[in-house]
Q: What sequence folds into this?
């Protein structure tokens, strides 16, 4: 039978090793308990008992092997000091080989996505080419508008709903000019820019005074105003549902497929131009200035010297010029424009595109436009259901995502961090005597370790207290004892002076009383209890019982 | 003279109807912080509710009006359930709330289009055909009825907000939503009351407007935009401001169509609104200068 497995109450007898020499006053043989291994307590206390969860993984970087001599040489975008992909040279910590780490992979994704859009017309299935090319052209133009719009809403924080109104006004006026004065197609976007600047300047005026939603509602009304004005005025063809007949860059003598292809690539080029505008506005000085002044923190930004109003209006005007350009381009692409550009539906769909993708991000605007255009223009046979689907998608995105599809990653990280924090807080068990927050306030860290060790030791010693040990002490308080009792007594003797028990002898031969030291020089001990012990052995045992009691209570 | 009186009385009628929507928008914004652009949908929804009630149950004016009010309240509760309850404690609530109500508006109008088809419907006359001559001016039954009903509804809502426990809760939320929630006013339950009562107002406005216009899936857009403009001009959150703005804009509308012609109405209206907002960015009343900053 294994000794360790024996229960504490088993009839184990301890033999005094000094008995053969006739140990005076000590026990020869007493019933006691097997002493458990003290290391078990240490192992229990230091074991890591928390369940681990697999959450995510380390961020994955692409690392290229590099020639050590060329580790620090890299391309730069002329004339800036920026390098493509944000490549950083480093030495592998394990192998000490030179490596190059890509920190910013977004340009790769952009290049791949734009390449896919560029070659997409050659991959369209037979029979659907015309539909898809038309939808692709609409996608390009809408994406360009939405990129500009996201600059206004996201970067400039001006909640304008009149972007399509600017496009529409520019498109209508340029079409009208082209029809009545025979302007060539290439002049239309340029004139559109002027119109966009003027109209944008006009609607930027209230933006200086109004904030947030007042401006949103006002621009919603302006949109309606434009719709009503253009639909009811005779010059702009109130009868025909739109204004058509402007000059175009798409020659009607070309075969239809070529016309569609040219239209597609024209719109694609427009979108790429809008992306450049976004990059050079949001990613440069203006964007950085405005990132300093997010909504509700304008006062702080102003105090630090950021002229946010000027920056916002500048972006608004720049974008209005771009929107005017898009309007002129629209007129030149479709030979005119329909009244539906001013419709509430258009604003709603545009907002759906922005919201689904994520406001304030070019990739969000493009992805949202792609999704909504595919639903709206390609699945046109579905009727009103497709709009219900778009609405449901928009609602779902708004309800569950903080900032559209491209905000998902950050939202997921935030959620994961929250969960991590929750799990971490469940591990706050009191391992030592000191809680972590107390520990920071203690100067003597040695004391913390001592308290921790002391707790472990007491946990261990509590296991040794049993009837056998108490009986053994009662029989012979002095002399050699069994291992269990000896360990207890050693611990008790090592107690600090403060509140340490001692015996007070009242007469030359007793009786005895238990007292406790004050631990302070000059302060007399206090009497612990009134009970008197007639013999010193009884008194020793009384002190022992007190200490055992204190140990078990602590 | 008769012409002017006719135009003026028209303006008052229109101002009454759009004022109801404006006050609904205003109350929702100031108490819940939700910019509800779904009233256009509620408007059409309530119109179709009244239409169905007239067709299925009875063409009695009371039945039609209460059906419109009840469907309007139902629409408000739907928006509350879909938008306010899940979103009100999320980050970016104002923008997301507004976008969500727009999404509901998109889905709702397209759903109505899908269900009822693009043909517009009309409701029977609620107020009969009679007229009253007062000081030599003739008032037709529908105009008197519309003005009377909207004033009645408005008075009821205002009295309810002044006198009842729920109204007290709503007013507390308008003053300081955070403090209101601290003293034990449930944000969600108040949301239900607010959305139901404002939806009912939009529903009544819908029934009243259907005396003049037809009910169509997208017929709620104009009332929404007019209502929002009035609310904007009067100052979001202020009922008195909305009433004053409704009167001002009604007068502008009447004067423009008399002096310049009907197609300039929106232009002059917006110029008026922009001027007022440039002078007082928080509208005519602008009482909530610092109250709503969620």
A:
């Amino acid at each position: 039978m294994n000794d360790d497995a024996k229960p504490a109450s088993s009839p184990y007898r301890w033999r005094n090793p000094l008995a053969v020499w006739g140990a005076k006053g000590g026990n020869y043989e007493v019933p006691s308990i097997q002493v458990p291994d003290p290391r078990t307590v240490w192992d229990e206390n230091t074991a890591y008992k928390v369940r681990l969860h697999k959450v995510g993984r380390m961020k994955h970087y692409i690392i290229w092997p590099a020639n050590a001599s060329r580790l620090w040489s890299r391309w730069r975008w002329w004339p800036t000091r920026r390098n493509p992909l944000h490549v950083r040279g480093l030495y592998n910590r394990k192998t000490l080989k030179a490596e190059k780490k890509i920190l910013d992979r977004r340009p790769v994704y952009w290049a791949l996505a734009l390449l896919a859009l560029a070659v997409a017309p050659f991959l369209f299935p037979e029979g659907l080419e015309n539909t898809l090319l038309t939808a692709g052209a609409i996608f390009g133009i809408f994406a360009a508008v939405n990129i500009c719009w996201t600059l206004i809403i996201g970067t400039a924080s001006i909640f304008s709903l009149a972007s399509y109104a600017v496009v529409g006004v520019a498109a209508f006026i340029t079409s009208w000019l082209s029809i009545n004065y025979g302007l060539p197609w290439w002049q239309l976007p340029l004139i559109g820019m002027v119109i966009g600047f003027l109209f944008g300047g006009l609607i930027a005026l209230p933006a200086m005074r109004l904030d947030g939603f007042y401006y949103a509602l006002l621009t919603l009304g302006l949109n309606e105003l434009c719709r009503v004005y253009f639909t009811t005025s005779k010059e702009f063809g109130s009868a025909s549902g739109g204004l058509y007949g402007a000059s175009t860059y798409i020659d009607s003598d070309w075969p239809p497929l070529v016309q569609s292809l040219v239209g597609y690539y024209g719109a694609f080029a427009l979108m790429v131009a809008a992306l450049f505008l976004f990059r050079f506005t949001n990613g440069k000085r203006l964007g950085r200035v405005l990132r300093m002044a997010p909504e509700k923190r304008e006062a702080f930004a102003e105090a630090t010297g950021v002229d946010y109003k000027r920056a916002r209006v500048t972006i608004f005007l720049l974008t209005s010029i771009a929107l005017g350009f898009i309007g002129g381009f629209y007129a030149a692409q479709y030979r005119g424009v329909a009244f539906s550009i001013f419709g509430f539906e258009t604003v709603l769909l545009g907002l759906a595109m922005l919201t689904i993708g994520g406001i304030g991000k070019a990739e969000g605007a493009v992805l949202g436009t792609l999704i909504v255009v595919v639903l709206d223009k390609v699945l046109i046979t579905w009727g009103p259901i497709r709009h219900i689907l778009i609405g449901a998608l928009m609602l779902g995105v708004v309800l569950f995502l903080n900032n559209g599809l491209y905000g998902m990653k950050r939202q997921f990280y935030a959620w994961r961090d929250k969960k991590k924090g929750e799990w971490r807080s469940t591990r706050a068990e009191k391992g030592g005597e000191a809680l972590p927050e107390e520990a920071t306030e203690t100067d003597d860290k040695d004391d913390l370790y001592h308290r921790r060790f002391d707790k472990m030791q007491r946990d261990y010693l509590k296991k040794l207290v049993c009837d056998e040990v108490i009986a053994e002490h009662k029989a012979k308080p002095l002399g050699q004892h069994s291992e269990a009792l000896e360990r207890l007594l050693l611990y008790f003797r090592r107690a600090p002076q403060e509140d340490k028990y001692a015996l007070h002898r009242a007469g030359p031969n007793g009786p005895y009383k238990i007292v406790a030291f004050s631990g302070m020089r000059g302060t007399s001990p206090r009497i612990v209890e009134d009970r008197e012990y007639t013999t010193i052995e009884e008194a020793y045992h009384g002190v022992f019982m007190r200490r055992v009691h204190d140990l078990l209570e602590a | 003279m008769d012409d002017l009186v006719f135009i003026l009385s028209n303006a008052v009628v229109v101002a009454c109807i759009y004022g109801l929507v404006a006050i609904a928008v205003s109350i929702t914004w100031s108490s819940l912080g939700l910019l509800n652009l779904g009233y256009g949908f509620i408007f059409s929804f309530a119109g179709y509710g009244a239409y169905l009630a007239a067709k299925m149950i009875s063409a009695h004016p009371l039945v039609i009006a209460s059906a419109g009010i009840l469907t309007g309240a139902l629409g408000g509760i739907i928006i509350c359930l879909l938008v306010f309850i899940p979103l009100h404690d999320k980050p970016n609530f104002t923008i997301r709330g507004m976008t969500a109500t727009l999404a509901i508006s998109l889905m709702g109008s397209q759903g109505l289009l899908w269900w009822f088809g693009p043909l517009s419907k009309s409701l029977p006359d609620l107020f009969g055909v009679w007229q009253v001559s007062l000081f030599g001016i003739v008032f037709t039954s529908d105009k008197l009825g519309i003005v009377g009903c909207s004033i009645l509804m408005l008075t009821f809502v205002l009295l309810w907000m002044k006198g009842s426990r729920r109204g007290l809760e709503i007013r507390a939320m308008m003053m300081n939503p955070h403090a209101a929630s601290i003293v034990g006013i449930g944000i969600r339950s108040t949301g239900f009351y607010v959305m139901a009562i404002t939806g009912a107002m939009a529903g009544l406005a819908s029934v009243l407007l259907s005396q003049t216009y037809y009910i169509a899936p997208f017929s709620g857009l104009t009332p929404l935009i007019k209502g929002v403009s009035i609310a904007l001009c009067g100052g979001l959150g202020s009922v008195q401001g909305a009433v004053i703005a409704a009167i001002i804009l009604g007068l502008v509308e009447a004067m423009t169509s008399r002096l310049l012609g009907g197609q300039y109405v929106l232009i002059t209206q917006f110029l008026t609104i922009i001027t007022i907002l440039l002078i007082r960015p928080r509208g005519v009343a602008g009482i909530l200068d610092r109250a709503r900053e969620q």
Observations:
- Residues 62-104 of chain A form one domain.
- The radius of gyration of chain A is 42 Å.
- Chain A touches chain B at residues 159, 205-206, 209-214, 216-218, 220-222, 224-225, 228-229, 232-233, 296, 344-345, 348-349, 351-352, 355, 359, 383-385, 387-388, 390-392, 394-395, 398-399, 402-403 (CB under 8 Å).
